[in-house]
Amino acid sequence: MCSRHHNYHSIITPMGPKLHSSSLILTVSIMYLLTVKINPIFGEDSVSVNCPILLKNCSCGHQTYRGTDATYITNCTDTGITDPLVLRDISQATEALIFTGNFIHELPPNIFGVPDKSKEKHEALKQVNMSHNYIRKVHGKSFHEVSSVVMLDLSNNQILITGDEYHPRFLTNFGNLEELYLDNAFGDIDRSDNFMEDLMSMVVEAKPNRLRILSLKYNRIKRFPQPSTLCELPSLQKLMLNGNNITDIGIDLSCNTRLRYLDLSNNRITSLDNQTLHRLSPMSPTFHIDLRGNPFHCDCKLREFINWMSNAPFFVTGKLEYRCATGYPESLINRTLLSLSPYELECDHLSSSVRHGYFSITYIILVICIFISTFLLIGLVYQNRNILFTSCTKSWAEVLSKSQYASLEKNDPRVTRGVEEVTV
Predict the structure, then answer these.
(1) Which is the most buried residue in 8, 156, 194, 357, by most CB within 10 A?
(2) Do 298 and 326 form a contact (C-beta atoms < 8 A)?
(3) More confident residue, 40 or 226
(4) What's the pLDDT at 411?
């Protein structure tokens, strides 16, 4: 053992300063590896520094994100965080916060910190993605220190915005917002006009003069509360409403001169009337409208729409794919709209809805008549019950008497003998 120890020293001793220098380099390298790690979420080439202690399960570092190079990202995807107040500890260098796949049922006030008038705490923060977090309740003062944010994504949550949960000002601190994503974001059961009115009031209350993109996909929206609702968004360029329950384009787009894309695919539009087509016609030549996946009803009322679609002064996206979900005659079902000629589109003078209403009314009247007749019959019987009882008793007695008489005649031998004599 001593020999080995001696030999070891005899081997390294001659190296002297070189060994000390190598040890120092090795130590520094180990320390760097302890403080800097490769982030598997960002990719093999992305380097992530240690996050603050309360965000130890997150990843922090620079990466290309949404087309922006060298973005400092705090990524807390699927980390199981339940307390959103840990977000107060994100690095001031954070430019993009990805906080998805967690379990946050409520956003309390000031999740990014108490507002400080003397200094903006998160001046670098530009993008916030808080989708898929099961959020149900958002306070009116949940978001402060977010004036620099240009993109907010709250999609796929269960946010309540009607009734007692209505907080119209919870977006008001996003003064420079340019992109707002609220796809399948709400948990309200009632999606009537009140829901849409509260939703648009919440968006408009923020005074988003710079808002370019508004995405409201899959929210079971039926209609907009007022045709001029979108006039409060003068910079709007892209409006995504696909996957809702919209039956008509009941919005005035004339004040949205910058609008370039309107997605109404997979709604419940069966046709567009002349008034709607007239409102759309002045749109810019660079404007795109997408109506794919709607259940068009092909009859004579669709002639104007097909003609308009063929000659629209802008882009009707995917118009070669538009098909008849229903039609008159029924042979038109599943035909593409642009393959139809005007004479094939006939008018059903007694449309299915009218027929349905007609037969429904007839059925109701028939049921009422039967009910009244039955009631009158019962009343008539009750009123003449004594007479009916006497008559029925007398008739029954006569029947019994005749039956007994016939039985006696059958059993009388004289009657039988007389019959035999007559026969001989």
Answers:
(1) 156
(2) yes
(3) 226
(4) 60
**Across-strand partners of 49?**
36, 60
Given the DSSP bridges, would you call strands 59-65 and 47-49 parallel, antiparallel or unpaired?
antiparallel
Mean pLDDT score, 158-181: 89
How many C-beta neighbours within 10 Å does residue 93 have? Answer: 15
Least confident of 15-24, 243-252, 279-288, 394-403: 15-24
Q: What is the DSSP string of 161-198?
A: -SGGG--TTTTTT-TT--EEE-TT-B--S--SHHHHHH
Nearest 5°: the CA angle 354, 194, 249 is 55
Average pLDDT over residues 377-386: 79
pLDDT exceeds cutoff 50 at 317: yes
Of 178, 173, 120, residue with least CA distance to 150: 178
Distance CA 150, CA 175 (A): 9
Collect all residues with Cβ–Cβ distance below 8 Å to 173 and sequence separation of at least 6: 143, 144, 145, 146, 147
User: Where are the strands (E) in 132-291, listed by range?
Assistant: 137-138, 151-153, 179-181, 213-215, 238-240, 261-263, 288-290
Token readout for 249 is 């384009």
Residue 109 structure tokens: 């006030």
How far apart are the C-alpha atoms of 58 and 78, rounded to whole Å?
A: 9
The Cα 344–Cα 206 span in angstroms is 50
By the 8 A CB rule, do 278 and 249 touch?
A: no
Question: Which range, of 168-172, 222-226, 388-392, averages the lowest pLDDT?
Answer: 388-392
Quote the tokens at residue 95. 């430019």
Q: Which positions ≥6 away from 107 have C-beta within 8 Å?
A: 84, 135, 137, 138, 139, 142, 143
Q: What percent of the chain has pLDDT over 70?
A: 79
Residue 412: count of CB within 10 angstroms of its CB? 11
- Give the phi and the psi of residue 2 in degrees, each rounded to 5: -65, -40
Higher pLDDT, 373 or 180: 180
If you average pLDDT over residues 229-234, what whole number do you get? 91
